[in-house]
Every structure is written in structure tokens, then in C-alpha cells.
Design goal:
single chain; about 210 residues; mainly alpha; 8 helices; about 80% helix
Length: about 210
């Protein structure tokens, strides 16, 4: 299994996959700036020449774009696909862990135990993504399919805060759950924070010595 993974997921293929993800994200995110917005609707609904637009997200962004293109096209299908993939991963790992160990083979429990821990960490990231983004997309669906429905403003604020908080939570999850990420973050912290702090103290100490000598 490990050998197959290294043969299939080469650095070149991994880099290509990351590049494609970034390109898709740019295209999806920039679509409103390329014309998929409410500007035409706002222009047609104004009688006077002066166009005054209230600075609100739902006023300028098309809910057709947010629901049909963004949510139904690029959020919900990948989310369901990843859910199915992780279900299969957990099933295969538990299947391997439940196999009887023979005398002629090494115990696979240690290897698959590590794989299970890693899969749980990545599944937690997926769960946090769903919890953070689904409330806002559900509210967008309500806006599109039931315009007359009342949406409490505090629910909208909570949904927006959750989407912003998702980006802040992911590094913490990686750092606490995955050893390699934790080691890398600690190395960066020591190199760029502790080093700068030490340099700052050294400069202050040197300045004080010069003042005393003068």
C-alpha cells in the first residue's frame, strides 16, 4: 500500500494537482468580477442616473452564482466525494487492523495505526470545513429559494465568522495532530520569532552599553 502510494503520488503529480486547485479557485473566486454579479439588475432597477448601492454582500453578489455555481458546483460535490473517500479509507484501515498476524509477516498494526491517526486528523479538517462553511451556504440557499423567509441577522454574522475562523483553525489542527507539521511550525517559530526577539534584545543591550560608555 505504501509502495503503491509513492509510485502513484509523485512530486510532479502532486505539484500539478496543487496548481490545478489554485487555478480552479482563482476562476471560481473571480467569476463575480468578470460579470456574474447584480450590477445589471441594479442598473435596470434604478430610474435615476445616480446609482447608489448599499454595501452588502447579498446586494452586489448574485445568489445564482453563490448557490448553483459555488455551492452546488464546487463545494458540495467535493465535500461528498471526500466523505466517501474517507469512509473507504477508514474501512480499509480497520480491515487491515483486524487481520490476524502471522509468524512470517511483520505486525502491520503499527503502520496502519499511524495511518489511522493521520486519517483522523485529515477527517477532522474536513469536518471543520463542513461545520464552518455549510451554515453560510444554507443561508444563501434560503435567500435564493425563499426570498420572503426571515433570516435573523445574528445567524448571518455567526455564519460569516465561522467561514473566517476556518482558515485560522486549520494550522492549529495540523500542528497539534500531525507530528511533521508540528515540527515544521516549531522550527519556523524558533527561526523567525525567537531569532528576531534575540536580535532585538541584543540591539537594546548594545545601545545601553554605548549610552553608559558615553
Amino acid at each position: 500500500m505504501k509502495t503503491n502510494y509513492k509510485r502513484v503520488v509523485t512530486p510532479r503529480r502532486a505539484g500539478t494537482a496543487v496548481l490545478l486547485c489554485w487555478l480552479v479557485s482563482i476562476i471560481v473566486g473571480m467569476a463575480p468580477m468578470f460579470g456574474w454579479n447584480n450590477l445589471q439588475h441594479l442598473n435596470s432597477s434604478k430610474i435615476t442616473d445616480d446609482l447608489v448601492v448599499t454595501c452588502e454582500f447579498e446586494t452586489v453578489i448574485s445568489m445564482d452564482y453563490m448557490v448553483y455555481f459555488n455551492f452546488f458546483g464546487w463545494v458540495l460535490p467535493p465535500l461528498l466525494l471526500m466523505l466517501a473517500i474517507y469512509t473507504e479509507i477508514f474501512y480499509m484501515i480497520h480491515k487491515q487492523l483486524n487481520k490476524k498476524v502471522t509468524a512470517s509477516h511483520a505486525d502491520p498494526r503499527r503502520y496502519y495505526g499511524k495511518e489511522l491517526k493521520l486519517a483522523k486528523s485529515l477527517a477532522l479538517v474536513l469536518l471543520l470545513f463542513a461545520v464552518s462553511w455549510l451554515p453560510l451556504h444554507i443561508l444563501n440557499c434560503i435567500t435564493l429559494f425563499c426570498p420572503a423567509c426571515d433570516k435573523p441577522i445574528f445567524l448571518i454574522y455567526i455564519a460569516i465568522i465561522l467561514t473566517h475562523g476556518n482558515s485560522a483553525v486549520n494550522p492549529i489542527v495540523y500542528a497539534f495532530r500531525i507530528k511533521k507539521f508540528r515540527t515544521a511550525f516549531w522550527k519556523i517559530w524558533k527561526q523567525y520569532v525567537f531569532c528576531w526577539s534575540s536580535m532585538g534584545l541584543l540591539i537594546i543591550y548594545s545601545t545601553n552599553l554605548l549610552n553608559l560608555n558615553q
